[in-house]
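fold-stage: in
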Amino acid sequence: MLARFERLVEQAVEGSLRRVLPTHLQPVQLAKAAARAMEEAQIIGVRGAEVPNSYELRVAPADMERFGDYTSTLSHELSRYLVDYARERGLRLVAEPRIELLEDEAVRPGSVRAQARFVDLAPAVRNEVDAALEGTRRLRLADLAGAHAAPHAVDDRLWLVDSLGQRVPLEPAAGIVRLGRAADNDAIIANQRVSRYHAQLRWVESTWLLYDLDSTNGTWVDEQRVFPSQPHALGLGAVLRLGDHELRVRSE
């Protein structure tokens, strides 16, 4: 799906962006940031998992200048990408997603800050969303209370590390870390026994919780099976197994 997004952008601007931005912020980074913001802002409503309709992507002034006349095209293709992303993940958009690219001097060149929000909704929908927000907060706290293993307060910066040398930072500010075979995950695992969207980590009240996403070959932590409805709290030294692929939680 991410490759399709790249092709659409390249076709729309005839490859010009890749020539203009060979080593700077790329459209794929914007797509990944928007998708992460969508996942992080996901709520559980009466119709299932629902996600926001407004996405602000803040970039450095230098990167905004390089995008130049292509910002409108990027916004359009990013919106299409999010529709496909939500559909594949079984997420319901409350309205057509709209993307706003904003210049922000606080963002370093080559990076992006994304925020997803529920905005400009009809009163009835707004009431449903507000109720779902509170319900989701309570659900996450219940997940934490019922998680396998005692919650671990995190003092040091943690990483997920595998035998192939991949290192994925577990940054509380990110809120969510996605693991799987698809290219739009944070930890991309090229293993056929790993599902495209296999598992995810969520930062809940100073603890990382690991959720299985109905994967085909299962998720384990320290040889304990993790089920979609029963997350597992992670701490330093934990061993994750996705299918037959192992990752360890380590500090710097």
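fold-stage: in (second)
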Amino acid sequence: TYPAGKPYKCGECGYCCTTAGKLKYHTSKHTGERPYKCSECNYTCMKSGNLKSHIRIHTGEKPFKCIECNYSCIEFGTLKVHMRTHSGEKPYKCTVCNYSGTTAGSVKYHMRIHTGEKPFKCNECNYSCTTSVNLKIHSRTHSGEKPYKCTECNYSSRVSCHLKIHMRKHTGEKPYKCSECSYSCTSYGGFKIHMRKHTGEKPYKCSECDYSCIQSGHLKKHMRRTHLRTAI
């Protein structure tokens, strides 16, 4: 028997659908058949639409454009996710805390904070992490690779965000502005440290005495100058 309006049925699992085309696509999941092949590389897929999107990687075509900024991409689904950065929509919610994300994948990675799972492991040291991207970045500490290069000077970095912050030294851009005084800076980290001057927060505390400070570098200097000299 077939559900109403779904006359096409899979002989492997009982899946039913409305068209022969949908059934053909579904059965390829069982057979492993990937009839659509890229002429530029060894990519293959089950749907012609997926191949069409893939080809844009080679051609550089990005037909889906954001109406809020100059972002563009090769797939509508990717644009849909991007638009959430403007709307603030975060439809995927963590079931343990109040975290929410723009994609199902972001919540999946977040959940590893709660479970403690770190499936990506470095084969050079005992480092492990929650995402393949973080492992790739970490691996550059071993290889010395710094693929992000400044076009104005010889600076290079392991991660793109560090280059973005560095470029502000050349452009003079200081997007982080203090609401208490005229201070502004190039990075959120620097801004966060500055704000502690106003709040009085000193999260870095010496384990040997009652000294505390606003940033880790100051604590390291204190330890060298005070306690290492005392030990000598």
